[in-house]
């Protein structure tokens, strides 16, 4: 079925634009399948995209997957920073420039990249001139310098070394403060410069002496990677005055060394001060004193204690001997009882067996009762304890056939093992 | 991550899913250590009962994460996850002579990939050095970088990382000729072992775009297993007055058999459950039917269905807007899951699952098939070209917010471009003037409306039935219908012979300029053209 178009009314123009279509949504497409590859080829072929266009393509993208820190780099820069002289970029707060002042040295490479992108989109000169603003590319230059610094591991370390904005200030001397609360963050912050990682933490009031000692020994031997190149005086470019150049270079090296020494001294003083104010150290000293006193007392009381122990030992030995004797007696009594019980059982079994024939009315052979009784007596003599029990239980029922066959069976069994001679039997057969 | 699968595709798109030397195509992603020996796959899985603390499971989602950031309950059944000095995640296992070995997540990934690589090389008979690997959509940049690094250490250069739902959909669409070119909206719902992931993906002109994703880190086949464990444990307890959940070993035995039972019940109506010496020397033999199982696990299945509904809502859509639902992951073999999901959608929505369509591809293999297809597509490109094609300038494209189409003689909206079509795009429709000499092409934006049709229940002739069903509600069938919304442009064609063939072309360029043109389909005709822009 084909689609039929409506008839034109009047003599309208051949084409007329009526309104704009709805603003589109920018979304990432999935880079899979052959139609995607065709799209990629088409987009890239014969086209050189400017950095701005590329960054523009990252703007206002509808994200489907929330990463949690989409607002990275959204911090606003203050007026002073925006007006900062780009030639003096080294004195600007480069983390604030990127909108990362709350993260500083903790910012990951990915966060730096994303924050930089945001700043470029916000402050790019193309963008500024488009919106009428002029002469605004000073700050953009600082952004680029900041990114240059942050994206190079060495340069970033140099910057972090002098980024005093990230330092945590120790409590004012002689002020009232909670030691752990005040100093914990100070050392956590200093720790970032340690070549050796991880760095032990200050711990808390419950830390053991070993932990506290380890902590101070670590900071006492602190090996820092801090370097001071960032504070270098710029070495002149021109090659005409090589002596001057060398002079500046030497001056820089000396200045770095001096700064490094000063910083080491600063840290040593810091650690010493913390140690002298650490309430735990006093606690440990008190505890050590108490321990010593206790040891001394122990030593003096040693001989008496030995005597006490001796006596206790003796008493314990006597007690043990008594107990052993009692147990022995009990055991004897027990085994006697058991023996008696066994004897009784045996007697009872014999009685049952002896009475069985009569009980079974001599199997209808009353005439032969003498023979039968003699045989039963003979069998009873030969039966061991177990057999006595078996036979007695078999014959206890009083059933003539069962009883008779039980006697025959046991006779056969005994004869079989040579305990009984079949010829001696008068009535039963083996 | 319960299992891994590897596949290879040849140039004409035929995909082979590779079995490892044990014959498994869904290879358990598990490593286990007994003295000097390393076990992998199903053999390592068997060690979960005997040797759980030296058996490493579910490590993938820990890639690139700090110990503090993750929920370590995923490794509660195997070797416990521990925190390393630098805050990363590792496993502590005992090797020969009681020596402890710390296996970091990266190392586990590396060893696992080496085993997969070996299996593939064994199967193909040649060396492998490059691969496409899939990741959940919520893998962040850092996790992706780390995975690429670990793969490199295992001797695999990653050509491209692909999002799992896109890989699965690519495989599904490639199985049928030209399906990739049908403009449709899909839900790809992946129910795995410990987690569930879903995505709404629009396919327009062969281009895939994720409209929404959702993740449920604690929903998967594991929960179904646990329902069965609970059910069987109660039965055992009643019989023997012994709790089989008390010791780790009997619990592990019960869990392993529950998984077997669950999988059996995906295929047949009843299954036995047999465990020698389950607890305190008692053997356990019983059976369960599918209905009972589905009842027992009802709440888990319920959560899975709501999860699907949730991702649609997140995309700002209604189930009526979804053309197809592709069920992915091992758990999608469950018949109840497939039937529950289909109840969420109108009859016109196709739900793709093996229990509903025997021709559907194995849901456990869809993702790796997609990866293999992608690998075969980009194989001929060099590294630089692939990297270029993944740049934001290529990938981030404008998408049409509303459909665009024309009005026919009866006033109906005839769509040409559907919503979420990515630029640039060019599409045409063939139309006719009928008996009109002059016609007008009016370009409109479509307005979404929902049409409700009341379907009266078919009258029942049987007098008995009438009693039961007399107050049955008439069924209301709902469907999305687009009507003409805002008029965008008009274009007229004049002096036409009756029933001429005409063509209307809409073309939106990369920078968003929409070109409309109309012409008679005959040699030498001149097209009438014009353009508009977006707000
Ligand atoms: N035939 C089957 N019937 C029911 N469940 C099955 C079947 N086959 C496998 N499963 C289940 O599927 C789950 C594994 O699915 P899959 O392999 O997709 O997980 P994964 O993607 O490796 O892990 P995850 O998504 O949790 O990270 C397990 O719970 C397993 O028991
Ligand atoms: Mg999965």
TrEMBL record, chain A:
The keyword Chaperone applies. InterPro entries: DnaJ_domain, J_dom_sf, RAC_head, RAC_head_sf, ZUO1-like_ZHD, Zuotin/DnaJC2, Zuotin_N. Keywords: Chaperone, Cytoplasm. One of its GO terms (biological process) is 'de novo' cotranslational protein folding. GO terms for cellular component: cytosol. Residues 93-163 form the J domain. It holds the Pfam family RAC_head. It comes from the Eukaryota. Residues 294-343 have a biased composition (Basic and acidic residues). This is J domain-containing protein.
From TrEMBL, chain B:
The keyword ATP-binding applies. This is Hsp70 protein that interacts with Zuo1p. InterPro entries: ATPase_NBD, HSP70_peptide-bd_sf, Hsp_70_fam. It comes from Scheffersomyces spartinae. Belongs to the heat shock protein 70 family. Pfam families: HSP70 (PF00012). SUPFAM superfamilies: Actin-like ATPase domain, Heat shock protein 70kD (HSP70), peptide-binding domain. GO terms for molecular function: ATP binding; ATP-dependent protein folding chaperone. Keywords: ATP-binding, Nucleotide-binding. The gene is SSZ1. Coiled coil: none annotated.
């Amino acid at each position: 079925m084909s689609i039929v178009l409506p008839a034109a009314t009047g003599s309208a123009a051949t084409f007329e634009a009526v309104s704009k279509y709805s603003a589109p949504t920018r979304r990432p497409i999935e880079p899979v399948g052959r139609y995607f590859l065709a799209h990629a080829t088409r987009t890239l072929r014969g086209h050189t995209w400017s950095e701005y266009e590329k960054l523009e393509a990252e703007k206002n993208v509808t994200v489907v997957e929330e990463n949690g820190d989409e607002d990275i780099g959204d911090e606003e820069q203050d007026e002073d920073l925006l007006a900062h002289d780009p030639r003096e970029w080294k004195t600007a707060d480069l983390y604030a420039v990127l909108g990362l002042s709350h993260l500083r040295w903790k910012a990951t490479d990915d966060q730096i990249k994303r924050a930089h992108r945001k700043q470029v989109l916000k402050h790019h000169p193309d963008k500024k001139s488009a919106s009428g603003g002029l002469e605004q590319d000073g700050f953009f230059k600082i952004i680029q310098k900041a990114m240059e610094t942050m994206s190079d591991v060495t340069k970033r370390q140099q910057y972090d070394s002098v980024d005093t904005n990230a330092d945590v200030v120790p409590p004012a001397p002689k002020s009232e403060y909670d030691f752990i609360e005040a100093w914990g963050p100070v050392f956590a912050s200093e720790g970032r410069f340690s070549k050796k990682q991880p760095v032990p933490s200050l711990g808390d009031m419950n830390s053991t002496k070993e932990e506290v000692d380890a902590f101070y020994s670590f900071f006492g031997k602190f090996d820092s990677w801090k370097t001071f190149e960032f504070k270098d005086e710029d070495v002149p470019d021109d090659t005409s005055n090589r002596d001057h150049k060398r002079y500046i270079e030497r001056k820089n090296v000396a200045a770095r060394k001096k700064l490094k020494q000063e910083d080491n001294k600063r840290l040593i003083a810091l650690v010493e001060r913390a140690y002298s104010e650490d309430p735990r150290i006093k606690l440990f000293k008190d505890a050590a004193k108490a321990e010593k006193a206790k040891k001394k007392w122990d030593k003096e009381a040693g001989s008496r204690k030995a005597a006490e122990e001796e006596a206790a030992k003796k008493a314990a030995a006597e007690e043990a001997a008594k107990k052993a004797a009692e147990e022995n007696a009990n055991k004897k009594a027990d085994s006697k009882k058991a023996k008696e019980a066994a004897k009784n059982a045996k007697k009872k079994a014999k009685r049952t067996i002896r009475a069985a024939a009569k009980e079974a009315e001599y199997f209808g052979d009353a005439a032969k009762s003498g023979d039968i009784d003699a045989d039963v007596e003979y069998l009873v003599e030969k039966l061991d304890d177990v057999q006595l029990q078996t036979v007695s239980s078999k014959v206890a029922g009083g059933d003539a056939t069962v009883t008779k066959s039980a006697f025959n069976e046991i006779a056969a069994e005994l004869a079989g093992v040579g305990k009984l001679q079949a010829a001696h039997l008068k009535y039963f057969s083996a | 991550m319960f299992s891994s699968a590897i596949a290879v595709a040849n140039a004409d798109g035929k995909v082979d899913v590779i079995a490892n030397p044990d014959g498994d195509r869904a290879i358990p992603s598990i490593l286990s250590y007994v003295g000097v020996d390393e076990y992998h796959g199903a053999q390592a899985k068997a060690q979960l009962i005997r040797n759980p603390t030296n058996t490493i499971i579910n490590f993938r989602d820990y890639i690139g994460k700090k110990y503090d950031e993750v929920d370590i309950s995923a490794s509660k059944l195997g070797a416990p996850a521990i925190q390393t000095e630098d805050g990363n995640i590792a496993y502590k296992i005992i090797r020969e002579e009681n020596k402890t070995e710390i296996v970091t997540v990266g190392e586990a990934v590396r060893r696992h990939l080496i085993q997969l690589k070996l299996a593939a090389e064994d199967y193909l008979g040649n060396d492998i050095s490059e691969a496409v690997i899939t990741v959940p959509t919520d893998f962040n940049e850092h996790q992706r970088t780390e995975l690429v690094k670990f793969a490199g250490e295992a001797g695999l250069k990653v050509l491209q990382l692909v999002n799992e739902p896109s890989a699965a959909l690519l495989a599904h669409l490639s199985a049928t000729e030209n399906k990739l070119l049908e403009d449709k909206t899909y839900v790809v719902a992946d129910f795995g072992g410990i987690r569930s992931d879903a995505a709404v993906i629009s396919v327009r002109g062969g281009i895939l775009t994720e409209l929404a994703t959702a993740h449920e880190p604690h929903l998967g086949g594991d929960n179904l297993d646990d329902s069965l464990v609970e059910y069987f444990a109660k039965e055992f307890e009643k019989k023997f007055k012994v709790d089989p959940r008390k010791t780790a070993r009997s619990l592990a035995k019960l869990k392993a058999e529950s998984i077997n039972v669950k999988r059996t019940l995906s295929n047949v109506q009843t299954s036995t459950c047999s465990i020698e010496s389950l607890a305190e020397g008692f053997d356990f033999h019983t059976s369960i039917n599918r209905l009972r199982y589905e009842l027992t696990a009802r709440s888990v299945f319920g959560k899975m269905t709501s999860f699907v509904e949730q991702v649609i809502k997140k995309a700002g859509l209604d189930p009526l807007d979804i053309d197809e639902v592709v069920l992915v992951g091992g758990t999608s073999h469950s018949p109840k899951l497939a039937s529950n999901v289909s109840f969420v959608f109108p009859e016109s929505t196709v739900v793709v699952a093996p229990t509903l369509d025997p021709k559907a591809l194995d849901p456990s293999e869809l993702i790796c098939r997609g990866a293999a297809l992608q690998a075969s597509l980009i194989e001929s490109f060099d590294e630089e070209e692939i990297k270029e094609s993944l740049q934001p300038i290529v990938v981030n494209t404008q998408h049409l917010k509303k459909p665009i189409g024309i009005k026919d003689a009866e006033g109906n909206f005839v769509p040409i471009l559907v919503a979420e079509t990515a630029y640039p795009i060019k599409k045409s429709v063939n139309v006719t003037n009928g008996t009109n000499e002059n016609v007008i092409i009016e370009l409109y934006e479509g307005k979404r409306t929902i049409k409700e049709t009341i379907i009266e229940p078919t009258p029942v002739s049987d007098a008995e039935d009438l009693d039961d069903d007399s107050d049955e509600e008439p069924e209301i069938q709902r469907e999305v219908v687009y009507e003409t919304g805002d008029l965008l442009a008009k274009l007229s064609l004049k002096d036409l012979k009756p029933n001429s063939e005409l063509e209307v072309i809409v073309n939106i360029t990369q920078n968003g300029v929409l070109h409309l043109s109309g012409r008679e389909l005959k040699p030498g005709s001149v097209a009438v053209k014009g353009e508009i822009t977006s707000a």
